[in-house]
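Please describe what follows:
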Amino acid sequence: MSLRHAVLGLLSDRPASGYDLMKLFETSLAHVWSATQSQVYGELGKLADAGLVEVSAEGPRGRKEYAITPAGRGELRHWLTEVEPVRTRRSDSLLRVFFLGELTPVEAQTYLLTEAERSARQLAGLQQAEASIDWDDDAISVHGRLALEYGKRLSVMHEEWARWAAQQLKP
């Protein structure tokens, strides 16, 4: 996923300022795709230059609200339906598992149990986010819940696997 398509996706729901987009990133996409303020504002400029978004309103202190254009909506649809997702196969944590034989069994088990605890903390964070979000019936909320559920289930699976793997090692 690119920042370009994340911004277009957020703007497909309703116009927003850069500040509004940052808040949306923090409350909806933070666990999927993070972005800094400078990245979002830079991307808005690029999208405007490409004709994919336009300034729909201007407010005090130079505040600009952006709206997706028909060309931007077409780009978003193209990306959603015709561009194959990048499925990253690299995992630093799993690469380490391949080489745990270089450690003592206790060190290897500690690594795996630390991974399990990290996953448990990640799950707790996702559950906290889920409870704190004011869910609505809009598209971002409905589909955001689907993505959040994926993250929760993945965290549970990773924790269970890491605990199982630690038990497989003989101390």
Observations:
- The radius of gyration is 20 Å.
